[in-house]
Amino acid sequence: MTSLTGITALAKVHRLGVFGAFHLTPADGLAPGLQTLVLLGPDEPGFWLHLTGQPEWRDGAPDPLDRWSRRVIGRLACDLQGKACFPFGNPPYHPFYQWALRTGRAFASPVTLLVHDRAGLFVSYRGAIALPDRLDLPSPAQNPCDFCTGKPCLTACPASALTTQGYDVPACRAFLDQPEGTDCLSLGCAVRRACPLSQAYGRLAEQSSYHMRLFHR
Length: 217
Fold this sequence. Notes:
Oligomer: single chain
Largest sheet: 4 strands, antiparallel
Mean pLDDT: 95
Strand order of the largest sheet: 1-2-6-3
Structural class: alpha+beta
Low-confidence stretches: none
Strand content: 15-25%
Number of strands: 8
Shape: globular
Number of helices: 10
């Protein structure tokens, strides 16, 4: 029988980590017989250096990160006799935000972004694998925000676009159009960087810059 430990070892070869798992129900609408969903995200440090050496990154075609994710996670799913799910592609989209909350390892932060017990506000998901086995799961983690002194995420946004009320996307985009937005474009979202867990996660600024450029475009 597959185990989370075994999946972690398989994913680590591709610089992916298991970012949580939960047991599926019929209400989730995935194929009958699938019992456990395992979420995968970048395993830092080292993910970006690994990715940028892959064929999808070097071939000049669009969407290299998504194409790499489909290839790698799709192959893992096949090897595990499961089904791959992705947070990108054509709608209807899979509810990765809600899925993440169900793992007991991700939580709604004070600024409503997901925060992960290891990756902090730098949490991201490259895909998930739905498995036919009902895996043994660890106990839920504690919400790291409950123990965060000062909660720097609440005051870090220079555009006041991320608050307890949610994310003001137009305000964020407008700020990035200004010279003052250069820091966020080149280093990544100031709010995500302010999280103490994010600072310990090992994500490179080049990766954050890549995602910010795609968002701003």
